[in-house]
Structure to design on (380 residues):
């Protein structure tokens, strides 16, 4: 038996649209497919302005440039996240101030943010872990109170929502001043490598386009707003080619179908594993009332690292790949000596105990039921 952890799903139209993009003779960035994707995202989720990027990492780096992060500025973020959430700000000289994970979820502990704000704080970067919303009312209240910006790391959060105290349901990525998405092949919607910056605070819209186009006002030129284009700011080559955008378009067209299938897989895991998890004191994902579930991943929280290793090895012997996730950034070889020394108990706990189960569109019910049966058979 061989059940991988992830398997990219193809709708079948990817190569058709890529052929079309190639046939138009314009395969560099910001062509027909890029603009179709931008428009779709803006209309579907209420983002202010969207710019496709070559990765979420790039979108986060654009955000750091846009917020004009300077050496010594402080950025508040969870330690339990992917390297890029942090690295994008370190590239501009920021000092990272890590927040512990929540007691009941691996994402940022929203209640611990305010005490970490100083006069040097420039931004808060909440990560919607597993596509499940952070408490955005609280994050935005703190940000507004102290005049700092919010960049949502929505890498895993496509098609996921947050219902605020006002009762309004908003798409994740539409709430912070800026938000970054990923279309890496491990996410729900993919283009191999790929990402997007969503700009909700429109004061950043014009400059974002310039940074995106290598620091030039090329986009204004092509719209006929200026009669020549040149170097007007810093920037980089953040925009993907039309080949990537064409691939992504094929995925977006099928998003409802993809999301429905993933949600079925998630619910099947949850319902069939619940009694077993309760019996062995294993934690299950918790979806707060304010959050929707975009079925990005299914994870368990083991009692300790030994129990997790035991499960991983036992499943591996049956050809099933279950994997752990992030290693705390505050204890990473690169950042440990720069961290302020606070111990982040919950972050460390998730680093040692979180286990992700095989999760992909093509995971059929019989294979999934084998994963479940093998888990239940594990000698704990
Ligand atoms: C996947 C991921 C990223 C990085 O995305 P890329 O598109 O691979 O650069 C950043 N942050 C989080 C939380 C992620 O899950």
């Amino acid at each position: 038996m061989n059940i991988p952890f992830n398997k990219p799903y193809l709708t079948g139209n990817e190569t058709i649209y890529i052929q079309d993009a190639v046939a138009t003779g314009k395969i560099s960035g910001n062509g027909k497919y890029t603009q179709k994707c931008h428009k779709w995202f803006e209309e579907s989720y209420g983002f202010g302005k969207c710019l496709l990027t070559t990765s979420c990492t790039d979108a986060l780096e654009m955000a750091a440039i846009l917020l004009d992060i300077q050496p010594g500025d402080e950025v508040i973020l969870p330690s339990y996240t992917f390297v890029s959430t942090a690295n994008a700000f370190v590239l501009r000289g920021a000092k990272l101030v890590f927040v512990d994970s929540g007691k009941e979820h691996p994402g940022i502990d929203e209640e611990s943010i305010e005490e970490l704000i100083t006069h040097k704080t420039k931004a808060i970067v909440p990560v919607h872990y597993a596509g499940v919303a952070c408490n955005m009312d609280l994050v935005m209240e703190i940000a507004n109170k102290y005049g700092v910006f919010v960049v949502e790391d929505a890498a895993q959060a496509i098609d996921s929502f947050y219902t605020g105290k006002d009762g309004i349901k908003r798409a994740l990525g539409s709430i912070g001043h800026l938000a970054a998405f990923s279309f890496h092949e491990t996410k729900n919607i993919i283009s191999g490598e790929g990402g997007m910056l969503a700009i909700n605070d429109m004061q950043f819209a014009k400059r974002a386009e310039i940074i995106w186009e290598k620091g030039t006002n090329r986009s204004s030129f092509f719209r006929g707003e200026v009669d020549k284009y040149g170097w007007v700011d810093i920037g980089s080559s953040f925009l993907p080619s039309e080949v990537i955008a064409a691939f992504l378009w094929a995925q977006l067209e099928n998003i409802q179908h993809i999301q429905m299938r993933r949600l079925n897989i998630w619910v099947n895991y949850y319902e069939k594993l619940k009694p077993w998890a309760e019996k062995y004191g294993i934690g299950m994902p918790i979806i707060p009332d304010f959050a929707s579930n975009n079925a990005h991943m299914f994870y368990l929280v083991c009692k300790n690292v030994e129990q997790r290793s035991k499960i991983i090895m036992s499943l591996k012997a049956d050809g099933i790949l279950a994997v752990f996730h992030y290693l705390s950034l505050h204890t990473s070889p690169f950042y440990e000596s720069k961290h302020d020394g606070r111990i982040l108990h919950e972050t460390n706990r998730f680093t040692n105990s979180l286990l992700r189960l095989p999760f992909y569109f093509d995971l059929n019910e019989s294979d999934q039921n084998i994963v479940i049966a093998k888990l239940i058979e594990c000698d704990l």
